[in-house]
TrEMBL record:
Cell compartment(s), UniProt: Cell membrane
Name under which the protein is recorded: Monocopper oxidase-like protein SKS1
Keyword Lipoprotein: yes
One Gene Ontology CC term in the entry: plasma membrane
Signal peptide (UniProt feature, chain positions): 1-23
Domain of life: Eukaryota
Main subcellular location of this protein, as a coarse class: membrane
């Protein structure tokens, strides 16, 4: 009898433990302490933002359909939100980490993000989303591995290499924010960092002595998956490895047709995977370079990051000039051929065993068209602001979905125009009202003078065309309706346009923005509201138990206890925790 009772207790405990671990799919849990740290990546001591003391932060390593729990401790002296560009957060925009969906985490508080990487694979990153904080750090890589049952479309690499590149200022984000808020441009960055470190001293004039550089150690003959993320402020960068080909394999969750490149343009907010084979004779080390692109490169020469690729049998340090950057700065039509060449590997399996190309997007009728036009920053009510369709977005005091739930009037407007209107520029809280299960065409028209990266949370989209000039309906004749790459962040050339197609199958409130931090901060963003009118609880998750309240709902927010159980395991009631513990004790009593 005692044995039977023991078995019952064990089975019940296991069942409850499975519930605590979010049912059938495994869970990975991270504890992030986000704090300031003094570092000198370009030789000048400055305040950076570290995660668990590291700059960049640790890698989030997950697998398709895993549940991800990230408990974020805000040890800054300012509000904080963490966001996960490219992670689709299916049915769960409550975890998006932007002001339209989340109240910020106050200083000295913690908040736990909990979401599933449902039906996803690929290379992504995480970062802070408020007040240009990403310009001071707080970022790290986020990878979603294939399940063991879904094969890679290439031989299994001998290792993963993570490379975070980005332009960098020796002023911290607070100073940069002050510059923008005073109506000034940020100007030329002070350099480029590779994995949080400054350039190798390839030039004694341009690079001062005493700067720590990154060294990537490899073995001859091996092939590595090199995941590169541009987490910078506003500069497009050209990435290259001296004497090595970059075999493009994946971008932001979708496998590509494999093509070799000697260098590759990576724009702000974009992520790529390359297969790189160590096939050189290692007479010396080799340069890894990330240099400013689509600028006057003779003036911007200092905006160059340099790391070292070191073979285990290398015969000496690398010397001599850097490998040359592309020479098409004055021929951007030629430069555009590179992103146009990126094609989806339609026969490869992605997160599921079925081929990526099984979704025949080119045969679906478009339900709505939106033309989103950006202009150079202009003065609105005496402030320098950036706009989409003439509207500079003002973040609501109460997050949009919370305002819906608690019937807060006037929190936002559903009147964002679907095309540019001939009217004065203005600041507003206008968002797009989209149709759930619709299939929309979005034209990104960049009438600004700078390269821009456009991103949409909660989705990937098909990049079907890009060109210079003004988009017209006849431009549809150039659309790729067969193997366009699907991704979440796309470049839009100055004086040009990019066309994307989006299947609106993920209910929620989703941020649409430029990833260039200066323009984002100045208001070049909006949100898309995608709600199922026949909501039955299955198309969108309810708000989490640990939701934070602010704005019109501030009075509902309770002061956080330092060890509140709900902040560690949101959605799990204390009753179940107590019951599980009691059952565990029961096992030993019996």
């Amino acid at each position: 009898m005692a044995v039977f009772r023991f078995s019952v207790f064990v089975l019940i405990h296991i069942a409850l433990f499975s519930t605590l671990c979010f049912a059938e799919d495994p869970t990975v849990t991270y504890d992030f302490k986000v704090s300031y740290k003094t570092a000198s990546p370009l030789g000048v001591p400055q305040q950076v933002i570290a995660v668990n003391g590291d700059f960049p932060g640790p890698v989030i390593n997950s697998t398709t359909n895993y549940n991800v729990v990230v408990n974020v401790h805000n040890e800054l002296d300012e509000n904080l939100l963490m966001t996960w560009p490219g992670i689709q957060l299916r049915r769960n925009s409550w975890q998006d980490g932007v002001l339209g969906t989340n109240c910020p985490i106050p200083p000295k508080w913690n908040w736990t993000y909990q979401f599933q990487v449902k039906d996803q694979i690929g290379s992504f990153f995480y970062s802070p989303s408020l007040n240009l904080q990403r310009a001071s750090g707080g970022f790290g890589a986020f990878i979603v591995n294939n399940r063991s049952t879904v094969p890679l479309p290439f031989a299994h690499p001998d290792g993963d290499i993570f490379i975070m590149i980005g332009d960098w200022y020796t002023q911290n984000h607070t100073a940069l924010k002050t510059t923008l808020d005073s109506g000034k441009d940020l100007g030329m960055p002070d350099g480029v960092l590779i994995n949080g470190k400054g350039p190798y001293r390839y030039n004694n004039t341009l690079v001062p002595d005493g700067i720590n550089h990154e060294t990537i150690n490899v073995d001859p003959g091996k092939t590595y998956r090199v995941r590169v993320h541009n987490v910078g402020t506003s500069t497009s960068l050209n990435f290259r490895i001296q004497n090595h080909n970059l075999l493009l394999a994946e971008t932001e969750g979708h496998y590509t047709m494999q093509q070799n490149y000697t260098s590759f343009d990576i724009h702000v907010g974009q992520s790529y995977s390359f297969l790189v084979t160590m096939d050189q004779n290692a007479t010396s080390d080799y340069y890894i370079v990330a240099s400013a692109r689509f600028v006057n490169e003779s003036i911007w020469q200092r905006v160059t990051g340099v790391a070292v690729l070191h073979y285990s049998n290398s015969k000496g340090p690398v010397t001599g000039p850097l490998p040359e950057a592309p020479s098409d700065i004055y021929n951007q039509w030629a430069a555009m051929n590179q992103p146009r060449s990126i094609r989806q590997n339609a026969s490869a399996s992605g997160a599921r065993p079925n081929p990526q190309g099984s979704f025949h997007y080119g045969n679906i009728n478009v339900t709505d068209t939106y033309v989103l036009r950006s202009l150079p920053p202009s003065s609105i009510d005496g402030k320098l602001r950036a706009t989409l369709n003439g509207i500079s977005f003002v973040n609501p005091d109460t997050p949009i979905r919370l305002a819906d739930k608690y019937n807060v009037k006037g929190a936002y407007k559903l009147d964002f125009p679907n095309k540019p209107l001939n009217r004065p520029l203005r600041m507003d809280r206008s968002i797009l009202n989209a149709t759930y299960k619709g299939f929309i065409e979005v034209i990104l028209q960049n009438n600004d003078t700078k390269m821009q990266s456009f991103h949409m949370d909660g989705y990937s989209f098909f990049v079907v065309a890009m060109d210079f000039g003004i988009w017209t309906e006849s431009s549809r004749n150039s659309y790729n309706k067969w193997d366009a790459i699907s991704r979440s962040t796309v470049e839009v050339y100055p004086g040009g346009w990019t066309a994307i197609l989006i299947s609106l199958d993920n209910a929620g409130i989703w941020n649409m923005r430029v990833e260039n931090l200066d323009r984002w901060h100045l208001g070049q963003e909006t949100y898309m509201k995608i709600i199922n009118p026949e909501e039955n609880g299955e198309t969108e998750m309810a708000h989490p138990d640990n939701v934070l309240y602010c704005g019109a709902l501030q009075k509902m927010q309770k002061q956080q206890q330092p060890s509140a159980a709900s902040s560690i395991l949101p959605g799990i009631t204390k009753m179940f925790l107590t019951f599980a513990i009691a059952l565990s004790v029961g096992i030993f009593v019996l």
